[in-house]
Amino acid sequence: MLAFAATLIGLSTLSLLYVGRIASEEADQQAAVTERTLFVNALKDRQSLIARDQLSVARWDRSVKYIALKFREAFIEEEFVGSLWYDFGHDRTFLFDPNGEIVMSAHEDRVDFTRRTADPAGDLALIAKRAVDRHNASRIAIAGGYGQKQVTSSEVGRIAEFAIAEIDGEPMIATAMAVVPDDEEVALPDGAPFIVISAKPIDGDLVRDLNSQLDFADLTFGPGAAGKVPLVSASGRAIGSFDWKGAAPGSHIWQVVVPVSILLSSLLAFASLFIVHHIRRLSLRLEESEQRNRALALRDPLSGLANRLSFGHALEAASTKAAVSRFAVIACDLDRFKAINDTWGHAAGDLVIRTVADRMAEIVGASGLVGRIGGDEFVILVTAFSDLPSLLASRS
Q1: Alpha helices (H) along the chain
Q2: What is the β-pairing status of strands 170-178 and 195-201?
């Protein structure tokens, strides 16, 4: 009898240890999958943002007129590149002509119109070619030539090519799309279009920007493919990887399983109920942790308002119902905000941001959604009404 009891307790203890091992491994794996999914979505969000910025000048009759139909360097330098750099901060810009040659390259606002042939096996040439294929898939006939199907900002991935590129030895996130008309006052000739490529470096600023949304421990980007998210360029070359210190919920499971397993040697019945209770608590903690991660992915950490991703989802949802429920979008920023930071410091600037965010959220209330998209820039989605008198009255 004692031998049977000892065997039963031993088997129960070993079984519990085995279950603990499986549970801890599964918890760690699930946490790793969740974190990787959050990161990939955040990186795609940054690429989509670059493409939406790019769309403002690439889908424009003036761009077609002074790039595709009449190559005017002054327009390209002052309005095209100037907008991409000064308005949106695109560090690198390239223009490919229909023959696949680079006819303009820009580093910030420094423009070079030296025509050169791109390496056909290089990242830029491959990205441009794929952008041509995307354009051809959406090309339509219009009066006098060709245009492109209209897409919403949330559908920009249908006409834009997202890629990782190594430019002048520096890893960058890049997007490319065709230069096409918007109001169809002009049309493209038959054949390949001009392609614009925009790129931003994968540097400390980008890492901090991503982590403001993710709040991962020790998020870094470095050479090699040993990190959690390796990056491969358009030409198939490994150019580095993102890594961070992942959550390890499995260690908490072991901290409970091991002492309880020892306790089971003498209190089998009590310990069985005890471990079930604690495993449930650990599972709930893991679920709560995942919920917090999902919430962080949709909220601006400074103001508590919706971030770009969350506001984009809300705007897309409102757009799908625009035929039956109209809405309004208001964009604004703070005058002389830089002076506050320069005079009183960033702590004062952060207080101003939070104060303005609280007031805007209180004013808008249940009528819509307030978002912060960066710096002192705010956007408001009003879904309760869209007429101008009501919008003006709501300011008070």
Answers
A1: 2-58, 61-63, 73-75, 82, 123-138, 204-214, 249-264, 268-296, 308-320, 337-344, 346-364, 388-393
A2: antiparallel
- SS3 of residue 216 by DSSP: coil
Q: Give the pLDDT confidence score for residue 367 in this predicted structure.
A: 84
184-188, 221-225, 247-251, 367-371 — most confident range: 184-188
Q: What is the pTM of this model?
A: 0.60
What is the residue-averaged pLDDT of the chain? 87
> What's the mean pLDDT in 371-392?
82
Domains of the chain: 2-38+250-296 (no CATH), 45-226+231-242 (3.30.450), 308-393 (3.30.70.270)
Tokens of 129: 């070619």
Q: How far is CA 337 from CA 13, 88, 308, 334, 380, in A?
A: 63, 18, 20, 6, 19
Rounded-to-integer distance, Cα 308 and Cα 50, Å: 12
- In contact, 159 and 151? CB cutoff 8 Å: yes
Three-state secondary structure call for residue 314: helix
Position 53 scores a pLDDT of: 94
